Amino acid sequence: MGKTLAELIREEAPLVMGIINCTPDSFYEGSRKQVVEDALAAARMMIREGAHILDIGGESSRPGSAYVSAEEELRRVVPVIKAIRSESDILISIDTRKAVVARAAVTAGADIVNDISALADDPELGAFAAEQKLPVILMHMKGTPETMQNDPFYEDAVAAVKKSLSEAVERALSAGIDRENIILDPGIGFGKRPEDNLDLIKGIQELKKSGFPLLIGLSRKRFIGHITGRDAADRMAGTLSANLFSAMEGADILRVHDVPETVDALKMLKALL
Q1: With contact defined as beta carbons under 8 Å apart, do 58 and 73 qualify?
Q2: Is 221 a catalytic residue?
């Protein structure tokens, strides 16, 4: 078995987390892998190109997306996780809000829970993660994916997100999750305006004062299109720029669609620094 997530963060940050969406409706079409063979091929490429973690999701969280049943989510993700685990010991994250999905995913081989609700949706998920001693990624989101972009507003996005994430940390600790197993995510694009997303990226150092590792997930998101005028298929350059800035500010994990390009960009950044 390879290193734990905490060990990798200490030794190799920023880590690259590759996105595999087992969904028909994720916002970036290139990330959709609805057939196990396609998802496995994407996983093989990402592992070969230097990903540290694979994030497997079966429920789209694009703005306006509706809730997916646990049965459908399980059908989408469990065979993919089993297939990847049969070939590799890479860390696998299950992107879910549901304890029943997390349980099945961990049985299939997942190592990490990535919860966009920060353990607020399903009270059983925190207890399960604590019992299994799983790392948990707690993300900030205003509302739900279905409602989050309905006129979001912040006086100070960094302060508001920092406060909300501190409450999520208390929720995790109360469930019995070890401090070393908590990673925070400011939720770029989840109930934020373009200017809020920029403020949060520029506020990474302030967010890290909480003492927990920070994941940044901005890959190809709408605010990049707002700035560059490009659609999701053409936002790689903007994504790489924002991710390199995030890395320089102290991001510990970068959640990305484009693993080879991100790995190469980080190699150059490290050489120059």
Answers
A1: yes
A2: yes
Number of residues that this document lists for the chain:
273
pLDDT 10s digits, 190-243: 999 999 999 999 999 999 999 999 999 999 999 999 999 999 999 999 999 999
CA angle in degrees (0–180, nearest 5) for 36-42-46? 140
- State yes or no: cis peptide before 14, omega within 30 of 0: yes
Q: Which residues of the chain have pLDDT under 50?
A: none
Instruction: For the chain, give the mean pLDDT.
Output: 94
Q: Quote the domain boundaries for residue 242.
A: 5-272
Instruction: Write down the catalytic residue from 33, 76, 221, 222.
Output: 221
- Please write the tens of the pLDDT for every residue from 119-134: 999 989 999 999 999 9
Tell me which of 97, 162, 222, 255 is the catalytic residue.
Answer: 255
C-alpha angle 168/209/118, rounded to 5°?
15
| Whether the predicted model's global pTM rises above the 0.85 cut | yes
Q: Please state, in angstroms and rounded to a whole number, the distance separating the CA atoms of residues 123 and 99.
A: 8
SS3 17: strand
Q: Do residues 51 and 89 touch, judged by C-beta distance below 8 A?
A: no
- pLDDT, position 2: 78
Q: Can 202 be counted among the known catalytic residues?
A: no
Total domains in the chain come to 1
* Spatial strand order in the sheet of 53-57: 182-185, 136-139, 112-115, 91-95, 53-57, 15-21, 253-256, 215-216
Looking at residue 65, which CATH number applies to its domain? 3.20.20.20
